[in-house]
Protein: Dihydroorotase
Amino acid sequence: MNSLTIRRPDDWHLHLRDGDMLRAVAPESRHFGRAIIMPNLVPPVVTGAQAASYRDRVIAAGFARPLMTLYLTETTDPADVVQAHADGIITAVKLYPAGATTNSASGVSNFENVRDVLTAMEAAGVPLCLHGEVTDADIDIFDREARFLDRVLTPLRAAHPDLKLTLEHVTTSEAVDWVRAHPGVGATITVQHLMANRNDMLAGGMRPHFYCLPILKRGTHQTALRQAATSGEAQFFLGTDSAPHPTHAKESACCSAGCFTATHALPLLAHVFEEEDALDRLEGFVSLHGPAHYGLPVNDDTITLSKGSHLDFPARIEAYGQSVTLFDPGHPIHWHVVD
Ligand SMILES: NC(=O)N[C@@H](CC(=O)O)C(=O)O
Ligand SMILES: [Zn+2]
Ligand SMILES: [Zn+2]
Structure:
């Protein structure tokens, strides 16, 4: 197959940042219809009013159909969350365990303190998206997602069985199994976790542009993720987690976590799905399963991917005096989006 026309995809997990960085990266997501916009700005987006104003800045920067989220803190007002959702300002609420990832200092430490807001969300049908890692210093970084499932997610699910959940950026076979065992729960998968494992990041030299959280795992987990993404199961869908950091912050003694994949996410995914002999399932993963999970219509229009010469993408994009380096899998890609 050398050409594939599919419903326009959406990105169910995207970091656009703010200010100059927002203006630089927003156009890179132009092939996507909608995107769930992550709220981990500095300071985070915590109120409905802040989400409305951030939405206006995202649209002004050139991304027309953002789906906004609120950053859950231990002082989040349940009434504000429910109102912002009822008003159509937000699509979901995002839970970051405090300290788990980039800009997560205001996240949740004591889950007792968010019981009321989770109860209100459950009653009002407001979805919760989760960064699924425990942060205890004694837990090995490669085990943080698996421990989150038994220590946090299983009890949370039992306490709030009707709360709509999306487990973001799943990286392990344990997470894939947990999701399959819990019908109705959605799970996003990133481009980098499908394309790479920890060997690609660490063997023969440390590659900072492969460093993100949750961290890349061993190859057996990558295989489980590729199987889930290409299986056609509607619980799994694309969230790129494209997360721009200035090149100097990535190529640093203490590298920031995040891979910038927005620009060429779709050609990279076509490559993965072709390798798995599953190109006919790409549309489900990128365009159909996400809207179904969130109860939204699929996009009206289509995009076409075609296979031909070597995809030529820049090493980095300019961002107002800084640059952002693109995720490069390190081998040629032959798929393109036909503009
Ligand atoms: N994935 C990452 O490694 N980084 C994200 C935060 C996140 O999604 O955890 C970021 O905001 O940079
Ligand atoms: Zn995250
Ligand atoms: Zn993210």
Observations:
- Residues 57 and 323 are 21 Å apart (CA to CA).
- The chain has one domain: 3-338.
- The chain has a mean pLDDT of 98.
